[in-house]
Amino acid sequence: MARKPADQAVNRQDILLAAADVFRRKGFHGAKMADIAAEVDLTAGSLYHHFPGGKQQILHEVLANGLDIVTEKVRAIIEDTTLAPAERFRRAIYAHVVSLTANVSVAAALVFETRTILEDDIERESYLARRDRFEALYQRVIEDGIETGVFRTVDVPIFSKALLGAQNWLGVWYRDGGRLTGEQIANEMAEFFLNALLIC
Amino acid sequence: MARKPADQAVNRQDILLAAADVFRRKGFHGAKMADIAAEVDLTAGSLYHHFPGGKQQILHEVLANGLDIVTEKVRAIIEDTTLAPAERFRRAIYAHVVSLTANVSVAAALVFETRTILEDDIERESYLARRDRFEALYQRVIEDGIETGVFRTVDVPIFSKALLGAQNWLGVWYRDGGRLTGEQIANEMAEFFLNALLIC
DNA sequence: TATATAATCAAATCATGATTTGATTAATTG
DNA sequence: CAATTAATCAAATCATGATTTGATTATATA
Fold this sequence. Notes:
Two copies of one chain form a homodimer.
Chain A: H1 12-26, H2 33-39, H3 44-50, H4 54-78, H5 85-101, H6 104-112, H7 114-119, H8 121-148, H9 156-168, H10 170-173, H11 182-197
Chain A binds a DNA duplex (30 and 30 nucleotides) through residues 1-6, 9-10, 32-34, 42-46, 48-50, 54-55.
């Protein structure tokens, strides 16, 4: 029967992480299959064994996985209605930022390569849906806060784009081992945006 | 002597704008010289007459020009010490955002292709310097506000990255003809970030 | 251990696209 | 209008890199 994967054989996840890293450094179009393969000690051709769909499929899985992981964390917080809107908002930002900094390469791919995947008509639909679903989470909690009277009356779509921009930008500048940890940065950012909304 | 450029001949600026647009849609690596050429009714080879340095040079000029134009607008405001820090901060954001929305393609290039130009060792140095100079402008006015006691004591580098992220992100989502004008968005964003800083 | 299947590789294929080259066609200026 | 330089083009070059193909090697299970 089918053999169980050997311990030393590379698995899909290794390849996806390696790919995210190469994408961060060179961009999707600039990344060679050989570059990705080299990161996991394979040759370019071997990658097709794991991802028959080639480079495009690899990108798709990097982005879809990455977004899903963050979405799930944020969703759990936003939908916890036992907490006040301000607290849900704060915790969501914190979790989100920590998640991005914990995995800069994927965060960077989410920033830089979303455009690439949207070029592909097949992926386009499903990816846009994923993204809208995510953005809606933040919009919901902001609206809750406004209705409750604890948040200023801001333009919610614009505010959420500003927030997401600030967060996504981490994928551009954050590096492990910098002056602040991901958690410290997450705290700061949650503070910033909460102050922007709170009526004092 | 040298001939004066004919009226109907394409000029460098046309090409740079066309290039920025193609870069926005396909990314630097995905953009073909032929794509850029087609936008101005030329063939790929003809572009080398205007830009002997090829695609790389075109990217360099798009980014350097784009950044310089925005920098100059923001600089004039930040350095106008007849205004209070809060007012300088507000006007700088406004001018910056209006400038980005007035030229989405260049704004998008500044977001997506900075990484590309940084790969090039020659450009790297000069471009990083430009960018630091720009970021320093915002940091200065924020520090002024803190020292004056009108702004909260935030972590200035992190705050400015959050701000720049929110602004740069416009290059990703803003499109002409949307629900709000560039000016309206600029106002909103200035409000957001001012509220994040102001001690009420 | 024998066999089936997974993993992998090296060497083709195939396409694509940047850049160069050698004319050819304007437009300017004396 | 002749001479000169600018703009442009079509057709080579040249390189690069994704993907395919046909073995080869490793490992698990019967």
